[in-house]
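Summary of Year 1 activities. Much of the first year was spent building the evaluation harness for sequence design. The harness presents a backbone, in tokenized form, and records the residue chosen at every position. We chose the following record to illustrate the format because it has been used consistently in internal testing since the harness was completed.
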């Protein structure tokens, strides 16, 4: 599998990076406000443009003049994003003009070999665009494009430039065929023990004290002729607890970094092993972790560890637990479950068998004939007079086509005459038929409706 390209949005504080991120990704994932410094960490979301998928990464504002601690942290986050990205969108504020911070950042980017696009934001009108071009051309960064993230002006052209520049470098890009696996979960659920059990050796420090693992550990591993890259992470704990358990501020900083690394591991992964203690109830924090992995569209396996601590098991115990977890995490019913004991080495290697299968499902391409058959089912079963308001009953939707527009995760596009009038049951029917006709265990299916 080829490594997905990453485009990092970088710039000084309050130039509209998060608004641009939301516009390009059509999301509200990044919090935006008029206050400088609202976005402090890197936020990432996939974008599909002209049939090509890449990731857009928003970063905290870079302000190289201010030496406050927050600024230093934001710079560190953004520098990391620059190093890991395939392209940089250097965002500046058109109406504010060219500031010293912009010049300093331009010097920083020129030292990097990463391609840069200069994006002059807040260019709402032609006159603003003309003034901005005259001022920012002196920076010597090309290409340059004027946009307005607020109203969308020029953002389609920006996506075209991104697409063309990324396509130009595709042939030279390195291909990583390893299946990347992130092992995530709350602290002290046995993630490192599970990793060590898989490897058969003590590669990661394990202790009873929560948060023993503070860095991500990328470990290459071969199993049944397949190459894996296993990533163990520090546990993700509630934000209110991060940095507060110990008084030492330096240790608190390490804890915050661990949370960020765990999230980063999920972003890099093909498949997420979400580890939960089997003997405990699903907590609100477990659900938040599941939400993150689900939002990122990664393949997922639910690993219920410490199964050996469940007493008086019967042949139906696993079914009873499976039923409970299905109810606790209903939106992850597509994710397979496995009940393990890392210390007892119960069903440990089987997790890699499941990962291999889920990875294949993550990449799966569907035969167009299957999609045409599903489209026929939709057309045959569609009755505009069933349900809805009187106005809706008079609305007839023409279903024109169903095609796969992407994978990792599988992404399908239903073309029709009136997308807003499509009954909510239609996407559910499409997903049901897809899962019935192809292997999609452990994979989220995205269904988009448009003209």
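For this record, the design step produced the sequence shown next.
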């Amino acid at each position: 599998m080829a490594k997905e390209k990453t485009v990092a949005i970088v710039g000084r504080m309050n130039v509209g990076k998060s608004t641009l991120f939301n516009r390009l990704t059509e999301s509200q994932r990044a919090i935006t406000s008029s206050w400088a410094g609202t976005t402090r960490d890197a936020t990432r979301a996939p974008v599909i443009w002209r049939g090509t998928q890449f990731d857009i990464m928003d970063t905290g504002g870079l302000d190289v003049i201010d030496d406050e601690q927050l600024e230093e942290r934001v710079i560190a986050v953004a520098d990391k994003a620059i190093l890991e990205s395939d392209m940089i969108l250097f965002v500046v504020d058109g109406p504010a003009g060219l500031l010293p911070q912009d010049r300093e950042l331009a010097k920083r980017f020129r030292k990097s070999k990463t391609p840069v696009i200069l994006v002059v934001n807040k260019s709402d009108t032609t006159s603003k665009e003309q003034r901005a071009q005259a001022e920012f051309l002196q920076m010597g960064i090309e290409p340059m494009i004027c946009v307005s993230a607020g109203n969308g002006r020029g953002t389609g052209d920006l996506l075209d430039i991104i697409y063309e520049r990324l396509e130009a470098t595709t042939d030279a890009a390195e291909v990583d065929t390893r299946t990347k696996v992130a092992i995530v979960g709350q602290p002290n659920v046995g993630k490192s023990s599970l990793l060590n059990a898989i490897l058969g050796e003590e590669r990661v420090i394990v202790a009873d004290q929560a948060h023993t693992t503070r860095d991500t550990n990328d470990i290459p591993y071969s199993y049944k002729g397949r190459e894996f890259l296993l990533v163990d992470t520090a546990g993700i704990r509630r934000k209110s607890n991060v940095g507060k358990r110990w008084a030492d501020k330096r240790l608190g900083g390490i804890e915050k970094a661990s949370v960020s690394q765990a999230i980063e591991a999920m972003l890099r992964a093909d498949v997420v092993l979400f580890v939960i203690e089997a003997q405990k109830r699903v907590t609100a924090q477990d659900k938040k972790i599941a939400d993150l992995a689900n939002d990122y569209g990664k393949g997922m396996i639910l690993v219920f560890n410490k199964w050996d601590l469940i007493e008086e098991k019967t042949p139906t115990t696993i079914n009873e637990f499976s039923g409970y977890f299905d109810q606790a995490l209903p939106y992850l019913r597509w994710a397979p479950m496995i009940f393990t004991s890392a210390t007892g080495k119960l069903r440990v290697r089987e997790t890699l068998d499941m990962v291999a299968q889920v990875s294949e499902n993550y990449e799966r391409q569907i035969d167009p004939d299957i999609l045409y058959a599903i489209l026929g089912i939709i057309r045959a079963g569609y009755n505009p007079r069933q349900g809805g308001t009187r106005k809706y009953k008079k609305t007839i939707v023409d279903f024109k086509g169903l095609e796969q527009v992407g994978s990792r995760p599988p992404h399908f596009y239903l073309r029709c005459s009136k997308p807003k009038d499509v009954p909510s049951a239609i996407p559910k029917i499409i997903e049901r038929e897809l899962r019935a006709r192809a292997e999609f265990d452990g994979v989220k299916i995205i269904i988009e409706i448009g003209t």
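The domain at 6-170 is CATH 3.40.50.300 (Rossmann fold). Quantitative recovery figures across the full test set are reported in Table 2.
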